[in-house]
Design a protein that fits this description.
single chain; about 425 residues; alpha/beta; TIM Barrel; four-stranded antiparallel sheet; 13 helices; binds flavin mononucleotide; binds iron/sulfur cluster
């Protein structure tokens, strides 16, 4: 039986699945139900000064009929009082001593940080997460992403938190930056025990085209929101991987952003996350999604002979390189499995209009023909084909030694002409 226990910056968890700081971790009864459902840990909805929220406050991006494939919110931090939250954290900790509660915090002055950290730890926090990420509402007040975008502020506030905390401190980073590395390094210089990323992406989810107002609408106005859900996973993976492979960094990572199932979670772990956090998928489908996540992860670990989470964390990082190192002589071509092809011709259309005009309809058969001498191996037909594994990309043995752009630039290695380029 694989061992799912994890340690992220000193925060021990029975499994790598945590609720992200957001509505599903807003109250004691919710977090207790989540722990009963199987979640390993929870990052409590961010505590700070009491705020008021607007209605409405959520919006969904529908991608080809999938409502909520992208999600947005213009919600702020918790709108419940600090006292109630702290009481419920203490109660939940008493009932579930083995499940870590990480308390997310966002306040302004050093004194505010000192006080709220002490109160959170007294209530039983196993760790703290500094919310330097929220890109709406709180940043206008000088907090959230306003801190996360400014490395000197990030470092300073992190160092206050580390000074006043007796439990591990994670810094939650904002994706609203051009390069995540200086921000991860700032958290490290401040003494953080780990980072979590990503928070939401500054965005406009949609426009109500009949009322001429952005969504989500608050009377006749709206504002930019924070984008999350399945659609943001690629951005989150890139940021997690960028930090994980940065030699100067080396801190544990809790990965967040668009995680909907065990596969997504495994991808984050292979790129360096030792725990993963989930918000939107729980909002849309409930705490029960964790059951499949746990079962799927266990099965995956068994299949690949991983007995501990540590064995898979970062395993795909060595494959993440610069474009200039890729082998220009590596070649693939598309091959159609005639037995499973249903003759829909979607690959023909895709290759003709969006690729290299080398799949052709054939008289007398539903199966199109690929002109391999022209195929550049771009993958597009494989992507549009509705039948799983019907089109496969197959390596061509062209007997050319590997040669990259960097080889060309540094050693003057000759580049051979590519086929399909006219
Ligand atoms: C409605 C809503 C409220 C959120 N509130 C917070 C918050 O209070 N503190 C915080 O750090 N992140 C907050 N987030 C961001 C999430 O914790 C998470 O970083 C983000 O949604 C990406 O994960 P996901 O794609 O699984 O939703 C919120 C997200 C949503 C959708
Ligand atoms: S891989 Fe690209 S170029 Fe080759 S057949 Fe498919 S779509 Fe055309
Ligand atoms: S898209 Fe797939 S199923 Fe459709 S014709 Fe092409 S190979 Fe056959």
């Amino acid at each position: 039986m694989p061992d799912l226990r994890t340690n992220t910056g000193g925060i021990q968890s029975p499994n790598p699945f945590w609720l992200a700081s957001a509505p599903p971790a807003n109250s004691g009864l919710q977090v207790q139900r989540a722990f009963e459902a199987g979640w390993g840990g929870a990052v409590w909805k961010t505590l700070g000064v009491t705020i008021q929220n607007v209605s409405s406050r959520f919006g969904a991006h529908t991608i080809r009929g999938v409502k909520g494939a992208g999600f947005t919110n213009i919600e702020l931090i918790t709108d419940r009082t600090l006292e109630i939250n702290l009481r419920e954290i203490a109660e939940t900790k008493r009932l579930f001593p083995k499940n870590p509660i990480i308390v997310s915090l966002m306040v302004e002055t050093e004194e505010d940080w000192r006080e709220i950290i002490k109160k959170s730890i007294d209530a039983g926090a196993d760790g703290l997460e500094l919310n330097f990420g929220c890109p709406h509402g709180m940043c206008e007040r000088g907090m959230g992403s306003a801190v996360g975008q400014e490395p000197t502020l990030n470092e300073r506030i992190t160092s206050w938190a580390v000074r006043y905390s007796t439990v591990p401190v994670l810094v939650k980073l904002t994706p609203n930056v051009s390069d995540i590395i200086p921000h991860g390094l700032a958290a490290k210089r401040g003494g953080a025990h780990g980072v979590s990323l990503i928070n939401t992406i500054k965005s406009i989810i949609a426009v109500d085209i009949d009322r001429f107002v952005l969504e989500p609408r608050v009377a006749l106005l709206s504002t930019n929101g924070g984008y999350c859900g399945a659609a943001v996973k690629p951005i989150a993976l890139h940021m997690v991987a960028s930090l994980a492979r940065e030699k100067r960094f080396g801190l544990p990572i809790s990965g967040i952003g668009g995680i909907c199932n065990w596969r997504d979670a495994v991808e984050f772990m292979l790129l360096g996350a030792s725990t993963v956090q989930v918000c939107t998928e729980v909002m849309l489908r409930g705490y029960g999604v964790v059951e499949d996540m746990i079962d799927g992860l266990e099965e995956y670990m068994r299949t690949h002979n991983f007995s501990t989470i540590d064995q898979l964390v970062g395993k795909a990082i060595p494959s993440f390189s610069e474009w200039g190192n890729l082998d220009l002589n590596y070649e693939t071509v598309a091959k159609i499995n005639a037995d499973t092809c249903i003759g829909c011709q979607l690959c023909v259309q895709a290759c003709h209009d969006g690729a290299h005009q080398c799949i052709h309809p054939e008289e007398g058969t539903r199966v199109p023909r690929i002109d391999e001498s022209e195929c550049v191996g771009c993958n597009l037909c494989e992507i549009v084909c509705p039948v799983p594994s019907c089109i496969e990309m197959v390596q061509v043995n062209n007997s050319h030694a590997p040669a990259s752009w960097n080889d060309f630039v540094t050693d003057g290695k000759k580049l051979r002409p590519k086929k399909g380029v006219h």
